[in-house]
Design goal:
By secondary structure, the chain is mainly beta. It has two helices and 32 strands. Strands 5, 6, 9, 12, 24, 25, 26, 27 and 30 form a nine-stranded antiparallel beta sheet that branches. Helix 1 packs antiparallel against helix 2.
């Protein structure tokens, strides 16, 4: 028995040293999870009749090799497509043979076709709606390979604009009562905002504010597009309250009700319509002036905002903490192109290792629960970072010494048994 017991100990220690050596070899492997050998004893009950009082162990064995899925440290990189998972979950990968695998290695790049891929060229999966080369993020659906279209973003005509500013209540009525954009004495203040037509051509919309003598707290607004006057509507008159806020008009209250209806702003939007000579569609949008105030302070503009933009080429890609893949374009726009999904398992140790930082599901692991980062059991993402191996080198070296000693001790037990047999054979 001692030979068998010693041999089992040698085999167990050798297997444990294999596991430790693999851990040490992957100490710098991104997304690697350390393993440890789980030992179990072995009994040969048939030799003793299964009597518990005289059972002698038949040695030991490695029962299983268990992986440690604890979080590894994060390291910052210069690649915005690198991703680290903060918490549990796995990236879902479509392999080149069409099968699905899972990984903690977040080193990704764009391939020549525009897909986000691993160093092996296998595609990262996520939520995305795609019609030809036009992609968008709409809802969830079935995960598909995430595609970043190489073409740029088309132009968008202005549909709405907003201005926040203060008109100086202490200013006098202009000395020149006949308005002219070239005569500063005929208006009090002016500002301008860039707007865009359907071809992405830039136009300059200028607004001139003219204080009126009566009634109090009223101003006219004159508009010009690219230096050309737009038709003046007498309704383009701004009326402020004595508190300097836009005047509100309350609709009539029905006799059967009490109280007032919700107030609505009056005369604080301008409808801009103008033909352009660029071959684009006519401009037609609304500019909101509800952010204007009239107080005893110098004229100042705090915000100019409009929703049009010129065409632009893709300049970069980034990923948010909840997995949104965003395309950044040369015209300053950002567009959501897709969303990375993560998979979580009831029993991660049931996954089978495929090598190349990949795992595959098994019946022991259970089916993956697919969701967006930050939902359910899934962690969040850190863009521009990678998760290092969780191998603790000092612990591995200590375990290496322990298994080396175990190996020596088991070898000694075999040597001792050999000496005993030799003594027995030498008896006369």
């Amino acid at each position: 028995m001692a030979f068998q017991q010693g041999l089992s100990g040698l085999a167990s220690s050798a297997r444990a040293l294999d596991v430790i050596s693999s851990n040490v070899a992957n100490a710098s492997t991104v997304g690697f999870k350390a393993s440890n050998a789980v030992f179990a004893d072995n009994f040969a009950s048939a030799m003793t009749g299964a009597m518990s009082s005289i059972q002698i162990g038949a040695g030991g064995m490695v029962n299983t090799v268990r992986q440690n899925f604890a979080q590894g440290g994060l390291t910052t990189t210069s690649n915005p497509l690198d991703m680290a998972i903060n918490g549990s979950g796995f990236f879902q990968i479509e392999r080149t043979n069409g099968t699905t695998a899972y990984s903690r290695n977040g080193q990704f790049d764009l391939d020549k076709d525009g897909y986000i891929v691993t160093p092996l060229g296998e595609k990262l999966m996520g939520y995305q709606t795609r019609v030809g080369d036009t992609v968008s993020l709409v809802g969830t659906g079935t995960p598909t390979p995430i595609y970043v279209p190489p073409q740029g973003l088309g132009a968008k005509a202005t549909e709405e604009a907003n201005i926040r500013a203060n008109l100086d209540s202490s200013q006098a009525v202009p000395a020149n009562g006949t308005f002219s954009e070239t005569d500063p004495a005929s208006y009090n203040s002016m500002t301008s905002i860039r707007v865009y037509d359907s071809l992405g051509n830039e136009h300059q919309l200028s607004l001139y504010f003219v204080k009126l003598a009566t009634p109090d707290n009223t101003w006219n607004v004159r508009t010009f597009l690219d230096g050309q006057a737009l038709p003046f509507d007498p309704a383009d008159t701004l009326t402020f309250t004595q508190n300097g806020l836009p005047r509100q008009v309350l609709p009539p209250v029905p006799p059967a009700t009490t109280g007032a209806a919700d107030p609505a702003y009056a005369n604080f939007t301008l409808d801009i319509a103008s033909a352009v000579s660029t071959g684009a569609e006519d401009l037609n949008f609304t500019i909101s002036l509800t952010g204007l105030t009239q107080r005893n302070a110098a004229f100042s503009v705090t915000e100019l905002r409009q929703d049009g933009f010129p065409p632009g080429e893709i300049a970069g890609v980034s990923v948010t903490s909840d997995g949104i893949v965003q395309g950044r374009y040369s015209n300053g726009q950002t567009q959501n192109l897709g969303q990375v999904v993560l998979a979580s398992f009831r029993n991660p140790n049931g996954l089978v290792s495929l090598g190349n930082n990949l795992w595959a599901e098994t019946t022991e692991s259970g089916q993956p629960a697919i969701g967006i980062p930050g939902s359910g059991l899934n962690g969040t993402l850190s863009s521009g970072q990678i998760e290092e191996s969780n191998v603790d080198m000092s612990q591995e070296l200590v375990q290496m010494i322990i298994q080396q000693r175990n190996y020596q001790a088991n070898a000694k037990s075999i040597t001792t048994q050999d000496q005993l047999l030799q003594t027995l054979i030498n008896m006369r």
